[in-house]
Amino acid sequence: MSTTTRLITADELLVMPPYDENGKQCRFELIRGELKVMPLAKPLHGVICARLVVKLGSFVEENDLGETFGTETGFLVEHDPDSVLGADAAFISHERLNTVENFEKYFPFAPDLAVEVLSPGNTRREMEEKIALYFAAGSRAVWVFDPKKRTAAVYTSPSEVRAFAEGETFDGGEVLPGFTLDLAKLFAVGKK
Q1: How far apart are the C-alpha atoms of 174 and 163, rounded to whole Å?
Q2: 109 Cβ contact list (under 8 Å, min separation 6)
Q3: Among 22, 60, 80, 178, which has the highest number of CB atoms less than 10 A from its own CB?
Q4: CA nearest 108: which of 93, 97, 95?
Q5: What's the distance, Cα to Cα, between the start and end of the chain in Å?
Q6: CA gap 172, 48 in Å, rounded
Q7: pLDDT tens readout for residues 26-65
Q8: CATH classification of 42-187 is 3.90.1570.10, yes or no?
Q9: For residue 4, is pLDDT > 60?
Q10: For every residue of the chain, which 3-state class applies, written as one string?
Q11: What span, in angstroms and rounded, lies between the C-alpha atoms of 3 and 13?
Q12: Is-contact 153 162, C-beta < 8 A?
């Protein structure tokens, strides 16, 4: 991951083309005004994200709880300098969605639930910073999945976390009561 030195605003990021300085397609996040350039996701990351969006989306829709958002939906979680995070999956309740005035800009808050799927380049420090930013901007839970280790971490605050291993099932807690996720099924990727 590379960074720029000039501070960027959320409005500038909103109109930026999805290419790095070499013309290579990529994704961006903004951390305290610094542009973070990220390569496109690899297949394992993509399939885990897709499964999570489908599972969350089905549950949220069946229970009429709000909306589920897919990979890289932008959330403006800090101002001046701006931080915009692109969750791999997210849930926002109807109550909070009703406060949004412009769906053509980044959400002006963090989602109720932010979901991150680790990529090989993610560092522990980087993930801790993102988790802190999500909670400071209103998230009620953050789920972090590690496809390599086949584990999940469920945060209910930046310092309160429960770890789950493949073969275990966790629930949606207070954010998504009744939701369950079987990690063995989530991580079962490959040829059959």
Answers
A1: 17
A2: 75, 76, 77, 96, 137, 138
A3: 60
A4: 97
A5: 34
A6: 17
A7: 678 888 888 887 766 778 888 999 999 999 999 999 999 9
A8: yes
A9: no
A10: CEECCCCCCHHHHHCCCCECCCCCEEEEEEECCEEEEEECCCHHHHHHHHHHHHHHHHHHHHCCCEEEECCCEEEEEECCCCEEEEECEEEEEHHHHCCCCCCCCCECCCCCEEEEECCCCCCHHHHHHHHHHHHHCCCCEEEEEECCCCEEEEECCCCCEEEEECCCEEEECCCEEEEEEEHHHHHCCCCC
A11: 13
A12: yes
Instruction: Classify residue 57 as exposed, middle or buried by CB count within 10 Å of its CB (0-12, 13-18, 19+).
Output: middle
Residue 192 has pLDDT above 60, yes or no: no
Spell out a b/e string for 131-142, using b for 16 or more CB atoms within 10 Å of the CB, else e. Answer: bbbbbebbbbbb
Domain boundaries, the chain: 42-187
The pLDDT score that the predictor gives to residue 5 is 66
Q: Give CA–CA dist 96/93, Å, rounded.
A: 5
Reading the block at residue 174, the tokens are: 């207070």
**In this structure, which amino acid lies at residue 113?**
L
CB atoms within 10 A of CB 19: 12
Q: Are 33 and 9 in contact (CB under 8 A)?
A: yes
Q: What is the pLDDT of residues 79-136, one digit of tens each?
A: 999 999 999 999 999 999 999 999 999 999 999 999 999 987 788 899 999 999 999 9
